[in-house]
Structure formats: C-alpha cells, structure tokens
Amino acid sequence: MSTLMHYDTNDLWKIEQVGFDEKFLGKTESIMVLGNGYLAVRSSEEESYVGETRDTFVAGTFNAFDENEVTELPNVPDMLGMNFVLNGHVLSLIQGQVSDYSKKLNLKTGELVRSFIWKKDEVVVKLTFRRFVSKARLHFLATQVQIENLSDQPLSVKVRSGINGQLSNEGSQHFTDGEKGLMEGRFIQMMPETTQSKIQFVQTSEHRFEGVELTENRPETARRGFYMNYAFDLNGNSSISFEKRSSIYTSIDKELSSNKVEDMRQFAVAELISLEELSFDDLLSESAKEWQKIWDKHPIKIETKNFRDQIAIRFAQYHLHVMTPAHDERMNIGAKGMSGEGYKGHTFWDTEIFMLPYFSFTHPEIAKSLVTYRYLGLDGAHKKATSNGYEGAQYPWEAAWPTDGEVTPVWGAADIVTGQATKIWSGFIEQHITSDVAFGIKQYLDVTGDDTFAREKGYEILVDTAKFWASRLEYNAKQDYYEICDVIGPDEYKEHVNNNSYTNYTAHWNMVYVIDLVAELKEREPQVYAKLDEKFDLKSLVQTLEEKSEKIFLPQATEDGIIPQDDSYLSKKVLDLTKYKEADGVDSLFHEYNLEQVNEMQITKQADVLLLLLLFEGLFDKELKEKNFDYYEPKTTHDSSLSLSTHAILSADLGKLEKSYHFFQQASNIDMGEYMKSSDPGIHAASLGGIWQMIVFGYGGVRIVNEQLRIEPHLPKEWNTLTFGFDYKGQEITVEVRPDHFIIEKSGQGKAIEFTSKGKTHKLNDSLTIFY
Q: Which of this chain's residues are annotated to bind substrate (predicted)?
C-alpha cells in the first residue's frame, strides 16, 4: 500500500503526513494524538469528514452505556472541530483543489501543525492550524488558525466553532446533555454528565480575535452543542490568525478544592482569564519545557544510517507519556492509550509486562503511581476471586476504575464460519495476569529499592496473589500433582487448555517467592510481618503454599528440548504460516479459519513459552532457549503487537542479531510504518513500551536476573553506537555501547553499584569500560 507518511532525515523529532487522502484519516488521527496523561485528543482535521473518528478522552472517567455493557472511557464532547465558509464555499478537502498538504507532529514539543493551499473557483487560500495539549497545565488545550488570502480579491470568511456533544463511542452515548452557558459574553461552557458513573464535566472555550473587525459574533445553542459564529472580511493578499483556548475539568479531579459544578465553572473561566497576557507561543513554550524534562531524563541516542530507528524510540516515549495518567494513581494505561476507542480504555497485563518497565527504569515516580493502582485494585481482585470460588486476589483481565473488578466484555466479533458472536473467554480463564501483576510489583521493587511501597502495599499484593494461586490449583490424584486446567495462556489462540507453561511457572514463582519473603520478613521486619499476619494468617498460608508449590506440575522439555506450551499443543497439526505472516495488517488467518479450527493447530498468536524463557531466564539454559525459539517462532503469527519485542530481545540474547533487528523494525512499523490502516482504533501501547525494551533490554542488555543487575549489550551491525540511561535504586546510570566494548557511568556520590556481565561481577563507583 502506498504511504502518505514521511520522515525527514534532517529532523528526527517529527513525523509527517504529506498529501491528503480521505480513506486514511484514522492513521494520523491516532499516531499524532495529543495529550498529557490527563486528557488526550485524536488529531482529527478541524473540518469534518465521513469516516473520521473524533475522540477526546479524560483519564479515569469510565461509564457504562447500560447495565448490560461494561464501562469504557467516554468520548467527551469535541472542542477542536471548526467549520469554515469562504466566499460561500464550505471548506472541504474532497472538493476543489488541494496542494502542499502537510500534517506534522513535533514529538519534542507536542505541537501539531497542519497546513495546505485550497482553491475553489475564485477562492485561493492557505490555512495553517497549530494545536497542542499542554504538558504544563493538565486541563488546557489550544488551537491557532491562520488564514492567508492568496488571491488579490477580498475574501469573506465565516467560522463556526464551539463544543460538539453529537458524538458517541461507536454509537453508545455516554452523556446527558447538561447545562450550557455563556460567561462574561465570550466563554462558552457545557456541563455534560456521564449517565451511569455520574461524573460531571465542565468544558470551557473562548475564541480570541485580534486586529480584525468581526461582522458577526453570535452564540448558538444546539441539541448537545454550543457554538460561536463569527464572520469577517479579508483583503486580497493578506492574512489573519485567531486562537481557540479550551479547558476540561471533572468532578473526580483530585487537585480541585471543590468539585461542585458552579465552582468548577468559575475556576475554569478564572484560569483562562489569567492566561490572557500569555500568547499562544508563550503557552506552547511552557508546555514544551515540560516535554524537555522528559527528553533530558536518560536520552537515547542511536548512531545509525537507519534514521527511523532514532525516531522510533522518540515516537514510543512520546506516546508513553501522552497516555499515562501520572497525575492520579487511581488510573492506569489503556491498551490503546487514549488514542482511540479500541479496548474501551481498559488496562491489561500490557502495563506490567510491556510498559511498566520503562517507567520503573526511567521515571520511578510514575511507576509508583502505576503499581499503586494495582494496590487500589485489590478489592476488585478479591471480588473476582470470590465470584469464581477462589481465595486471595485474582486480578481482572481488563480493569477500569480500580475497584470495579472484571470489565472484559462477554461477546466479541462474529465467527467466520458460524456467523455467531464469539465469546471472549479471556475475562473468565486468562488468569496469568495475576502473576503478571506480581511480577511487575517485584520488578519495580528490584529496580527502585522502594522499601516504603513494599512495606505499605507491595508485599500485600504479592502475598494476596500467591494466596489466589494456592486456591486455584487443582489436585490430580492419578498423577499426585497440582495442575491448572481450563485456562488461556498468553497465546490467545489456545483456549481451554490445561497446564499452560507460562501460567504454571509464573504461578509457581509467585508462590515460592512469597514463602521466602514471609520467612525474611519474620526475621528482618517483624512489624511488617505482624501486619500481614493479621490479614493472611501467614503460618497457615505458608504451610499451604509449601505443600502445593512442591507438587505443582511444571512442564519439562521433551527429548528434543521443547517445553510444551500446554498439555496438548505439541500433538496438534502444523500449518505453514508464511503467507499469513507476510500479509498487511493482522488476523489474516481468520479470513480462512475460525478460532475453533486454529485452536486445533500449532499456531501461536504471540510469544508464550518464549516470554516465559525471557522473563525467567535464570531458570533455563541458552541451548534450551535456542531450541524453543527455533521451534515456536515459525509457528507464531505475531498477530498481537505484544509479540515482536519478546522475540527481538530473546533473539538478541541468542546472538541472532539480524533476526532480532528485523523484529525491531517490524515493531517500529506497526504504528509508524507504511500500512495506513494499522492504527485506526488507536496506537499499540504495549508495542511502544516494547520498543524501549528492545533497545535497553535487548541491545543494551540490561536485565534483573535473580534480583541482580546484569548488563550484556548486543549491538546490531546497523548501529555504530547506542547511548541510554536508567535509574537503579535511586542512582542514575548511563551506558554507551560500541561494537567491541561498553562504557558505564553513574552520577552522584551514592554507594557503588554491583552488576554482572558475561559471568563476571563488577562494582561501579563512577565509570567503567568493559570489553567483550
């Protein structure tokens, strides 16, 4: 497929769409999303088009459309759309002649700029739109519009702009219309409220025209909308610019002294008034300074001819910060971030395994917020465990507001063979997320050394999840072992399997770790032990954990060295997947087979056994990893964007650097690449976290193995140098990787850091150079 995407070798901070094509609106709407973790807006055009998806989301504002549906992030009334009429012609890029179309996102500053020349009969104009969502002011967003009359004839201009509530989530309307009002003659406000969760919104906009005489300045109320209508004349060969400034507040915002509607209204107006002396560029500059703090924290520099590799990591980091609600621990990251309606804004295991590591290693304060969310989710996890007849904390497959528990929809897409809706079993039997949450907590503690979080929250999560697994195990009297039956592992193409290796091994790890933890706490921290003992009766729990963990079935390698993905996988039919792996997009396999058929073949959606080998690498030797990589990768479709990073890192570990780099490029192209439909429902959040992991864990070789920091770089031949940094137990470390050695430095006067590399232990006091 031909692409409209363009990347400039001279500016590795920008991604650009060159040329307009109505068929591919979703691509840049999604990958150029603007946001700050509190709110995000898809980068739709100002003027409307059939096929657009005009989304604005505010983190944590989940609502259920009706009692039979799960909650989702509601699509907030739009504040960026505008309609233009020029000499009586409605501005539309599917009419007239369009030239010099450019839509460009500056990753460094978070500014979107769109410009084009439009000709229609006697009208010849250039329009330039600039917009940003402020990183300095969580509630604020702004647009600047410049209209240049390129003809020598006068131009009459009409603009209709306001707040449009005629939007939905694929047909589900989540808001009551609410009150509307005009404050001080120029601030338009709408106060919609979510229908079920009763979250009150206050949306405020003002338009700023300077140096132009308006011939019309009229408010217009409408059903689910409030607009301003403006008109003015523009002389030949002249230009004008105006601004639209807006804010969004909600009744769940923590920082407000009052969440009453009238108080929020007054506060929003006062804020906009306080900004009157600041220009658009002033406000953009203060936002850009906040972005610069992110770019200054452990910058990643890649010296390579493949310049898109450098853009790829910046693209990934940009989105990780756009989508992450660092301001509020009651919220977490959606599988599509806040860039689209896909997955309803819900949180999955994607956070712990693919995105949390980025924050644990680079922004521990944000990581702390994300793991605190899981602590706040214990009530919901208890609710799910109890409803299923288990004990302890069983984390939901999909999570929204932390106390809600399970919010996975029951029904999904139609079966290609039967035509009937497919049941989504993940919410019922994809249970490895409980040990994934435990793994994320443990990794956070290993990296940060955050003893306060551990004592107050982390240990409790680890014990509660181990308690769940002890209750989940089923005794097989014939074999005299405990097993885990009827589950889905990471490979979601295999439903209702027994003894999925990833699930069994991670459950075993969770249980054994807690046995050791409790013994350590009893000796080292008796007060913490006493607090946990009061909740869990630790002596009895540990006895149960010991008895069951010793007898849990852990699938062992066959004579050929292959760890079975589950009890039945290796006995199933093998299908050549070449044509499906080479197809554009994902799920091409399901154009010919249904899930029931795929379930009976050795076809893996995403890394399963290989993810186990990567996350728990200390349990398996290199030869076994290589045999399993060679066996499972050809059988993996990579239909999940989560898959490629695991394969890239593991193949780098195994010395398969050419293959690893191919996976890296594939992962980078999921959202940034030429296929123009890949990102329509939203960006692939876990894959973007995976890009950072491929660079730092894969090519930088950073890993925590058995609670020990290890650094063993593997530089692709396409790269001359790689420089990156990370935090480790409160100290900042910088690593520069070259083809035959690496240089590691730490800042500050903290104690020496111990790490291993190629089997040798090193102590880092200030700087070390290590040759391979």
A: 349-350, 605-606
Tokens standing for residue 503: 């699930």
Is 152 annotated to bind ligand? no
Residues 316-321 have a mean pLDDT of 98
- pLDDT at residue 1 greater than cutoff 80: no
Position 362: which residue type?
T
Question: Which structure tokens are listed for 632?
Answer: 């499972």
Task: Report the C-alpha gap between 92 and 594 in whole angstroms.
Answer: 42
Q: What is the Cα–Cα distance from 170 to 409, expressed in whole angstroms?
A: 15
The answer to the question of whether 606 is labelled as a binding residue is: yes
The alpha carbons of the chain give a radius of gyration, in whole angstroms, of 27
Could you list the residue range(s) of the whole structural domain that residue 33 is in? 5-296
Same domain, 530 and 510: yes
Q: Tell me, what amino acid is at 551?
A: K
Do 580 and 540 lie in one domain? The reply is no
The token pair at 621 is 């030797």
414-425 tens-digit pLDDT: 776 777 778 889
Q: Read off φ and ψ for residue 236, nearest 5 degrees.
A: -60, 145
Taking residue 386's Cβ as centre, other Cβ atoms within 10 Å add up to 13
CA–CA separation, 739 vs 720, rounded Å? 7
Q: How many helices (H) and strands (E) does the chain have?
A: 22, 33
Inside any domain, residue 304: no
Q: Dihedral sign, CA of 166, 167, 170, 174?
A: negative
Domains in the chain, number: 4
- Convert the pLDDT of each residue in 257-284 to its tens digit: 999 999 999 999 999 999 999 999 999 9
Answer yes or no: is 292 a known binding residue.
Answer: no
User: pLDDT tens digit string along 625-647?
Assistant: 999 999 999 999 999 999 999 99
* Measured torsion, CA atoms of residues 454, 455, 456, 457, in degrees rounded to the nearest 10: 40
Q: Which of 595, 604, 606 is nearest to 575 (CA)?
A: 604
Q: What is the pTM of this model?
A: 0.97
Edge-to-edge strands, sheet with 741-746? 301-304, 719-728, 731-737, 741-746, 767-771
Mark whether 674 is an active-site residue: no
Distance of CA 129 to the CA centre of its chain: 27
Do 613 and 508 share a structural domain?
Answer: no
Alpha helix (H) residue ranges in 525-592: 526-536, 538-549, 578-581
Q: Is residue 317 part of a domain?
A: no
Question: Which of 689, 716, 746 lies at the terminal end of a domain, its last residue?
Answer: 689
Active-site residue, from 492, 495, 626, 712: 492
d(CA 519, CA 521): 6
SS3 assignment for 630-683:
HHHHHHECCCCCCHHHHHHHHHHHCCCHHHHHHHHHHHHHHHHCCCCCCCCCCC
Q: Is 573 annotated as a binding residue?
A: no
Same domain, 379 and 246: no
Six token digits for residue 647:
């394969």
Q: Is residue 602 in a domain? A: yes
Residue reference for tokens 């900042």 = 732
